[in-house]
Amino acid sequence: MTIIGVLFFIFGFVTWLNGSLIPFLKAICDLNEFEALFVTFVFYIAYTVMALPMSYVIEKIGYKNSMALGLAIMALGSLLFIPAAQRESFTLFLIALFALGSGLTILQTASNPYIVCIGPIESAATRISIMGLINKGAGVIAPLLFTAFILSGIGSLEDLSAESKEELASKLIAPYIIMALLLSSLIALVKFSKLPELEFEKNAEAEEKSIFAFPRVVLGAAALFFYVGIEVIAGDTIGLYGQHLGLVNVTSLTSYVMFFMVLGYALGVALIPKYISQERALIGSALLGILFLFGVVSSSQSHGISEILWGWSGIRTLPNTVTFVAFLGFANALVWPTIWPLALEGLGKYTAQGSALLIMAIAGGAILPLIFGKISYVSGDMQSTYLMGIICYLFILLYALRWHKIKSWDEL
Question: What is the topology of this protein in the membrane according to its UniProt annotation (predicted)?
């Protein structure tokens, strides 16, 4: 659990840096909202492109060796940020992000089954929630560190001179060198650890089936597609939305979303499965998401809600509409931990392929934010565009209510 926890911290730190990179690259590469969201598209599409190939790699070299390989690919991706920053090249940044996403693909495909399979299936959501606390805790830290070390002394990213853009871009080099060194050191931690290899019993019936013969996995992947889409929309567009509203230090806004996700995960650890089932937690998450989306589109720029909730602490307050975007983190927190065990239950030797299929669903984080960005750019109304998330939560709700129970396509 400790070793996997370290890996989940890495997942969160690297993934949620994107929320800070989007407004940053928008400024130094002169992008519009739609173009800037190619950061999420390239990063998350890597999961779709690489997931199935990586599942076969896992079957050949094992789960443990695959995690070490994933770290090595991520270290290479971190080093690619150096020439990208030196040339201020958006294309090179996208290549580097694709490499990071590819490394994370094999890490996620290999590590998530560990958390599901090392204990009773009924408490798997609790174990994944613990990993989520670590993952999203890193997501809180990453934007704050980015803002502190990269954007110190800069109040706004708007109307930067050519010299300021060059200076800003150069500040990325040292942090990504450090990240590459840390990732390289973790390879030895995983490779020489006592982490046991996962083994699954083979049986004749399973040998005759395709992974697509398991509707709970296929529909679970579809639900995760919509979930990751709305999760990334919340975490990675909040900075753009703040920029759209004229707020300053927008690269730190992702931390608010991650903070509420941490609260949601903590609640999951405390309540699942003792007080609430995985299914009911998923139902509640979908309903809360719909409620918060209506809050986003119907709220004003008054700071009333955040002033009541945390204004007394001295932490920066937000307009109500932005606060509801942050609240989406709370609604999203328990979706990933509950769908994984519901989808993987009973797969046996097909767990690696089932895991790869679920990982491929992370493509939702590539496609849906890009659609969000296009609608927002064309309409000029980013606030109303958040309503597209209702489709995501309705699909998740249907999976929670019925679809996770289906054992054959005839029952659909």
Answer: Multi-pass membrane protein
Is 338:264 a contact under the CB 8 Å cutoff?
no
For 312, phi and psi rounded to 5 degrees?
A: -65, -20
- Which value, to the nearest 10 degrees, does the dihedral of the CA atoms of residues 123, 334, 313, 386 take? 180
d(CA 86, CA 80): 10
Residues across the chain: 412
Confidence class for position 206, pLDDT limits 50, 70, 90: very low
Predicted confidence band of residue 204 (pLDDT cuts 50, 70, 90): very low
| Amino acid 188: pLDDT | 84
DSSP letter at 197 equals P
Tokens read off for 128: 């994944």
Q: Cis peptide leading into 319, omega within 30 of 0?
A: no
For residue range 350-364, list pLDDT tens digits in order.
777 787 788 888 889
**What is the three-class DSSP state of 318?**
coil
Contacts of 346 (CB under 8 A, 6+ apart): none
Whether the Cβ atoms of residue 296 and residue 390 lie closer than 8 Å to each other: no
- Sequential DSSP letters for 127-154: HHHHHHHHHHHHHHHHHHHHHHHHSTT-
The helix/strand/coil state of 211 is helix
Closest CA to 339 of 224, 213, 212: 224
Residue 294 half-sphere exposure, CB side, CA atoms within 13 Å?
6
Is CATH 1.20.1250.20 correct for 1-195? Answer: yes
pLDDT in tens, 65-96: 888 898 999 999 999 999 998 888 899 999 99
Please answer whether residues 168 and 24 qualify as being in contact, where contact means their C-beta atoms are separated by less than 8 angstroms: yes
Are the C-beta atoms of residues 406 and 219 closer than 8 Å to each other?
Answer: yes
Q: What is the pLDDT of residue 371?
A: 93
User: Is 287 or 59 the better-scoring residue by pLDDT?
Assistant: 287
Per DSSP, helices labelled H in 62-152 are 63-79, 81-87, 90-117, 124-150
* Residue 397 banded pLDDT, cuts 50, 70, 90: very high
Tokens 């998350």 — which residue? 44
212-406: CATH topology is Growth Hormone; Chain: A; (1.20.1250)
pLDDT mean over 368-386: 91
Portions of the chain given CATH number 1.20.1250.20:
1-195, 212-406
| Cβ count within 10 A of residue 302 | 13
What letter represents residue 254's amino acid? Answer: T
